[in-house]
Amino acid sequence: MKATHEHEWEAAPGLPSALPKGEHVVWQGAPDWKRLAIHAFHVRKIALYFGLMLAVQAINLTAPEGLVSWKPLVVAASLYAVALALLLGTAWLSARSTLYTLTNKRVVMRIGIVLTLTFNLPYKRIAGASLKAQGQGTGDIALALHPEDRIGWVHLWPHQRAWHVSHPQPTLRCVANGQDVGSQLLALWRADRANDHLQLGDAPTASNPAHTPLHGILA
User: Considering only CA atoms, which of 131, 137, 130 is closest in space to residue 176?
Assistant: First the structure.
């Protein structure tokens, strides 16, 4: 697997170099930024936390006669709003700078807001995959690599499966029609394995019930 720092000089969108003979693009997509804000940046949970903090602060600032000191609340609410706006902006930029590509030979992930990285993940080096369905048809497709292949958790963030730090799993985050994309990935993985006369029986098992195995890759 190779990481490159090309973006402006891409041979084609999402691809750091021209595809070799016999390889072609099957699908391309990017995260839904709103779903990414919810599921990767946890904007809803943080907004709820800020709301609870404001409620507690309002209670503490309420005078015995029932009067509330509004100035500290306005200052706090303004700071919370700025923090949420920054999170939303980061989610939007992250989605805008990301492009996932499925070819008939590999998965390509172009990620990064300031420092752009392109990860090439050949199907031969993908040991398993799983789908975590979300609302509105979006989903996360996590890719389990062989033990000897590792990509730094920090390099992938936020395009990695949650809580898998020691063995990070590159993840296509919040893609539209996640079930269909997962089915495409499974078909491409099977075809690549069939071409190399490899068997499907050595796939690992799912460790998180929230992720649904892609049948045939993760059993």
Answer: 137
